[in-house]
Amino acid sequence: MRCTVEMLSIGNELLLGNTVNTNASWLASQVTSAGGTVTRITTVADKLNEIAGAVKEALRRKPDFLITTGGIGPTFDDMSLQGVGRALGRRLKVDTDAVEMIRAHYRRRFNREFIRLTKPRLKMARIPSGATPIQNPVGTAPAVLLKVGRTRIFCLPGVPSEAKAIFRTSISDAIRVAAGGKTFTEKWLRVSGIMESVLAPIIDRTMRHWPGVYIKSHPRGVEAGVRPHIELHFSTFSTTPKSARRAVGGAVSEMKERLRIRGAKVSLAHAGLSS
Amino acid sequence: MRCTVEMLSIGNELLLGNTVNTNASWLASQVTSAGGTVTRITTVADKLNEIAGAVKEALRRKPDFLITTGGIGPTFDDMSLQGVGRALGRRLKVDTDAVEMIRAHYRRRFNREFIRLTKPRLKMARIPSGATPIQNPVGTAPAVLLKVGRTRIFCLPGVPSEAKAIFRTSISDAIRVAAGGKTFTEKWLRVSGIMESVLAPIIDRTMRHWPGVYIKSHPRGVEAGVRPHIELHFSTFSTTPKSARRAVGGAVSEMKERLRIRGAKVSLAHAGLSS
Lengths: 275, 275
Description:
CATH class of the largest domain in chain A: Alpha Beta
Number of helices of chain A: 9
Structural class of chain A: alpha/beta
CATH topology of the largest domain in chain A: Molybdenum Cofactor Biosythetic Enzyme, Chain A
Oligomer: homodimer
Strand order of the largest sheet of chain A: 2-1-3-8-7-6
Distance between the termini of chain A: 30 Å
Shape of chain A: elongated
Helix content of chain A: 40-55%
Low-confidence stretches of chain A: none
Number of strands of chain A: 12
CATH architecture of the largest domain in chain A: 3-Layer(aba) Sandwich
């Protein structure tokens, strides 16, 4: 059972390049750990037509999950829910549960009973009809869940701490179940003293021996002033952790052997997140 | 004259979440500085159909530039050029200029005249027919330029130092010219003591007074253990730097005044890249 997940990152700051899309990589790593396969990440501006267009395109590809981040706050340019609504032909309406979540948030924050629900505050409770608001454990704007055909659409805030909290409490397990308990296993090798063009056929051969194991080479180190080297990433999805470890372990051992014959230096590595 | 730029990031590591897409944000910030508008960033896997599909979709939106990163190296899963070729119905063929670039790279690297052009090395010279290879000043695989209708497609390597070097030497000026000398101006304000829901209508009003200036609020600081605050980003594209600075400066002054009346603390800020 393959559980496919698309992500839609919404925010001008990502297209201006003044914000690195760490939400996408964090969510992708979590989805992968839960056994899901991220098939595409799309970033668009805070523009109604852009958002609606990207949502429609994603739904045409029928992923199991579509996770949007950003654009559900109180300001005029938070228009993700409106964009999703337009893509689905659904109007926004004030959801009473969402209103209660927002009220409760401000009550805790101000420590008082009466909360003035100004227009910007009420805006965060306007969600597409048929959608379910989801508790935001650390911020104001509730997240939103919609089902469209086989796809579950989750709309999360763009603030990383909020997106992470909601993913952990409300999405992670759903992906785990949809993936049928598949687990993702990976290992990194650090290799030096060999060029990528020499490594290429060795990777080919090793992958043929270990079907299901994916091996990718990443040239590294020239920038940071570190000696150039290549990091090899071995990964597999498997129904049992044991068979996954056996396959990845086998491919790693074979690769080590092949590389040592050619005089390359090889060691197990923990690769960082940054490219 | 609006110069639109789409980006296509190619690489399983981005979808597995073990690599943060810093190439996309770096390129986006450079495109923005050159006066271009990044309209969409798409990330897909190292899969032929995914790449070809994403290229076709991007071309349908007719951007002035489409910049792809990743997947042009010597390994089996470097298939970006094949994907672009498939999208355009063009076969790959060995380009003699590209062969010479690759030869010259290895000659410098090994400091010897005779270079064995193995299959993986020759692979980097196989580019879509009608494409032009572009010198890679710091790595092996040449970049590639194709023109399709109004769109110039640049295919860059995924290694950040190589993508950056090629962007600087071969793309930046082309965007600057296409953008007609427009400049991008921005300023950041750091605001505390006011909530985003209270700030929302103030942003609205200020933007109405300064059309052309875009103001976006970013809630910050809860994660890092820093006191919660909001960063306001002011930006505009303009044909003269002077008019741009005047507009952004005017909007910033008005905003400061409005915020001080409400008792918020305001200071100019340099926002970092990370969200």
